[in-house]
Amino acid sequence: MTECIVVKLGGIAGKNLPHHFFQKIRYWKSQGKQVIVVHGGGNAVSRMMKKLNVQVQIVDGLRVTSKEVLAITKMVLIGHVQPDITNQFLEQGLAAVGLNAADQHCLIGDYVNKPVLGNVGSVSKVNVPFFENLLKEDIIPIVAPLALTEFNQWLNVNADDTACKIAESFKAESLYLMTDVPGIKVDGSWVSQLSLEEAAELKKHGVLTGGMIPKVEHAVCAVQKGVSHVHITDGLHEMGTIISRAEVRV
After folding, report:
1. What residues does the record give for site: Transition state stabilizer (predicted)?
2. 156 annotated as a binding-site residue
3. How far is the C-alpha of 234 from the C-alpha of 55, rounded, in Å?
4. 4-177 in CATH: which number?
5. Which pLDDT belongs to residue 220?
6. How far apart are CA 227 and CA 156, in angstroms?
7. 98 is in an annotated binding site
8. I want to staple 21 with a disulfide (CB 3.0 to 4.6 A). Which of 17, 35, 147, 214 is the partner?
9. 233, 185 in Cβ contact below 8 A?
10. According to the annotation, is 11 in a ligand binding site?
11. 111-152: per-residue pLDDT in tens?
């Protein structure tokens, strides 16, 4: 199979995808690359919860997901966010299909900490043959960050975790974790490259804060498990901060 590139879109990033985003996708396709897209949608879920007077609780960057919150999350991700993103691809003439965990059990997961977080999970298995069949038909999968347990119980999964696990399963050439900043900032400057060791040092010394901590942790794990390099960036036209095994200096 040809080289695979995985792109994770944050909720904001996926709302109105710019022209240069699709230019990059087309360029990759012209080079024979296969593309898988994972979308987030946490902000949209939070807005819907507030409209429905459901309390938003975040623990260690993960949304506490009761049965009610899980139903809202599925409704927003599968019913609103994913169709919007998929339609943008179709309008650009790119064959794409929206997927969730119920499609051929494409993502299997386990609970992270059920007593504390409820129905929050982490991806434990990816149905690679299912994705490969779509990619062979030149279709771009647009994947919701949800998983099913082996007993068909739904799980709310962090989108970075979902994208990294898919990238690991394909030993992806590149993984793009798109966010709202150009990359990782150290001493007031954006860093272009980090080795695994340097990324660990930044975490150890408290340079990483907030949502960047789990994002970098997922990126490091992906590289350790076979992904060539991970970009943390705010656009596909920018390299952002590249995390790889290479020995580079900050």
Report:
1. 8, 215
2. yes
3. 29
4. 3.40.1160.10
5. 92
6. 24
7. no
8. 17
9. no
10. no
11. 999 999 999 999 999 999 999 999 999 999 999 999 999 999
What is the bridge-based pairing of β-strands 241-244 and 229-233?
antiparallel
What does the pLDDT look like over 70-90, one tens digit per residue?
A: 999 999 999 999 999 999 999
Residue 89: exposure state from Cβ atoms within 10 A (0-12, 13-18, ≥19) = buried
What is residue 248's predicted lDDT score, i.e. its pLDDT? 42
* CA-wise closest residue to 82 among 37, 18, 138, 129: 37
Residue 75 contacts residue 44 (beta carbons within 8 Å) = no
Please state, in angstroms and rounded to a whole number, the distance separating the CA atoms of residues 49 and 129: 36
- How far apart CA 151 and CA 36 sit, in angstroms, is 26
Question: Residue 157 carries which DSSP code?
Answer: E
Question: Angle CA(198)–CA(199)–CA(203) in degrees, nearest 5?
Answer: 115
Token reading at 66: 């009761």
Residue 11 has pLDDT above 60, yes or no: no
- Does 133 carry a binding-site annotation? no
